[in-house]
């Protein structure tokens, strides 16, 4: 009897690996560039770096290479976002652009839902300013 067992596929692999996350994050930042609420949070000289950091973080989070932590250490998302005022309006703008990016991937429904549920959770957890 052959004892070969197939390794379970990571979410990263199931959605198409790095190329999928590259498309997701690039599409997201296309929306950010023209967003009057979010754009001021991204200085021109840092926009490409922000795109790289988000892509590497998501790749690592979903089971891909650990390049993010190798380059930047522990994600510490709340600490890294603390310098920015993030209220419900900023969260909702972020989610709007991310939703457009997620749906553009045309993933199978169960994978899209899993990705979207995490992104909604993450966006809510970054809120650090009460609404006026």
UniProtKB/TrEMBL annotation:
A family per Pfam: Bac_globin
Binding sites annotated in the UniProt record for heme: 124
Keywords recorded for this protein, A-Z: Heme, Iron, Metal-binding, Transport
GO molecular function terms attached to this record: heme binding; metal ion binding; oxygen binding; oxygen carrier activity
Family membership: Belongs to the truncated hemoglobin family. Group II subfamily.
Protein name: Globin
Organism: Planobispora rosea
Organism phylogeny: Bacteria, Bacillati, Actinomycetota, Actinomycetes, Streptosporangiales
